[in-house]
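Dear support,

I submitted the protein below through the web form. The confirmation email said the job was done, but the results page showed an empty box. After a refresh the structure appeared. I'm attaching both so you can tell me whether what I see now is the final result or a partial one.
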Amino acid sequence: MTGSFHRRPLTLALAACALLASQAQAGDPLFRWVQLVANAKQDGTPDVMIKAIMDAEDSCPSVYVNNKSVVTLAPTPRSKPAGFDKIQLCEARIVNGDPLVSQFATAALDDQGKHTLPLPDLRQGVPVNQLIAFGCTGCRQKKDEQTKCNDNDWPFADVLKDAVDKAGSASMPAVVAHLGDLRYAGQKKEADSWTYTMNNTLGWQEEFFKPAQDLLKSNWWIVMRGNHEACLTDPFKQTSNESWQDRGSAWLYFFDDQNNSCQNNLDNLGDVLPSYALNATVYTSDKQPTQTNSRLVVMDMVRTGDERDRDKVVSKNLYASQFDTIAGTYAKGDRPLWLLTHIPMVSLKGDIFEDTVVMDAVMASQMNAKLDQSPLTVAAHVHEFQLINAMAGNPTAKRPLQYIAGNGGVSLSGKKKNQDACMQPTVTWTPIGGTAEVSENWYGRHRGGFGYFRASFNQDGSAKLEPRFYDISGKDWSEHKGVNCQLQSKDGEAYSPELPKSDATPACKP
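What the results page shows now:
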């Protein structure tokens, strides 16, 4: 009896040690975020995905709200790409109507409340008091261009520090949209990787997740592909860039919300993922829904439709089919459509407006007749900031206000890198279907500074639309130099993209 008595505490002690070891295996998430995705209804109803990147040997964490475990993340069903053995992705879909997204809440991926995440109230759609958007953020690591990938020549982390501050100054988190082109490093010569390669080439961890981690964990995200995240796997490459290595498989692993793969995407979809919409509503400062609402439409665009594209006609037709779906499914009711794309509809090249494959697709689709329902579109792809306002000089134009925010960190393009962001040139526009150049006083601005686009929406329907620029040499934000711009009416009031005014003119505000 005495021996048995002494062995029982030892057995309990071993069990306790085993339990502690099991708990330790949960580990801390390396990176975590809340991602906005489409509900299965495909009517604009949003869901969220809670995602966490863990060390490969760790188990997936549970989600706690008010110190109670409410759901446990599970390993994603999507295949892990080669070169990512050190990590695993854990995730859980929270469907609209679930109590977790029927009120604003703070969740944590541990029972101590250390690894927190904000959960939105989705009953009225996505809360969208702020929209922060940027694209083309990676580091090329070319011999003559951004070789070191540090703060002196690659300011992505600095750009996002300001975005964190601006998002944190509001009463609720921002909707953050990465418009694509997250990965550039080593794409012309090396297979994809999670972390540094033997050649000291950045992996996904260094090129995106570490710089973005503070913005990731504190806001609600939409993550899109750019042409650099296309499924570039032989023999299906739709681009003439033969040497480019696949980055699409890793994008799908991290950011897709279905059990998708590059093979399926290429075999069945032409490497164009289905577009989706998210109903959105502006809230008051005390988190009450208002009557100001919209619909965010997210389009997947990795096919460039230019000289790099092996089949421009196929690309245009694939996009036109997407626009047909948008026109037939989402362009209903009185919600304005805010289009988020990687490739813009139209861009400025010097002082000439150029339509892209996206506008060609619009004109060939049913969306052409409903384009006036889309007052605002935000894109990337061009490595500078641009604003094109057809309505200011041509009130009969149906084209939306086009912002381009492809200045998120990658080396900038264009010769006029110091151009005043508020200049208002008279430009030359060649209309679709014709060759005659017609002078139209459209307002266009472009500037090569690094930065991002920010929209702040008020409950009365007004909005402040603001490109923000970072001075990389002075380590300062250019708002102090009077170059951050917004659209204002003649009486000085910022106007809402839902209700564009014919008397609106671009104005510079220090």
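Response: this is the final, complete result; the empty box was a page-load delay. Residues 395 and 502 are 6 Å apart (CA to CA).
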